């Protein structure tokens, strides 16, 4: 009987954590346009080709309304950003 309140509390905290996590992931796809430049500045901070990186990152952000986290990879968090390709089939978005 003593474990029942603990299990209920654990269940409630787990559900709240999952709701919070889903809101964070959803937020990547609803980025306000004013936040594109700072996110792209960070995204392009590790490349030696800053000008083209910023150009395409901001273009992709304006269209997709998201920028993946980090300076490289993690494109699965932004499906539109990940699917946009050049004529040659290479990723358009940095």
Task: Please outline what is shown here.
The chain is mainly alpha-helical. The chain has four helices and no strands.
Features:
GASA; single chain; Protein RSI-1; 94 residues; signal; mainly alpha
Descriptive overview:
There is one protein chain. The chain is mostly helical. The chain is 56% helix and 0% strand. It is built from four helices and no strands. Helix 2 (36-43) crosses helix 3 (50-64). The longest helix is centred in the first third of the chain and has 25 residues, at 3-27. Mean pLDDT is 82; it is low at 23-27.
Fold blueprint:
Layout: H1 3-27, H2 36-43, H3 50-64, H4 79-83
Kindly estimate the percentage of residues that lie in beta strands according to DSSP.
under 5%
Chain-averaged pLDDT: 82
SSE order in H/E notation?
HHHH
Structural class label: mainly alpha
Keywords: Signal
Protein name: Protein RSI-1
InterPro entries: GASA
Pfam families: GASA
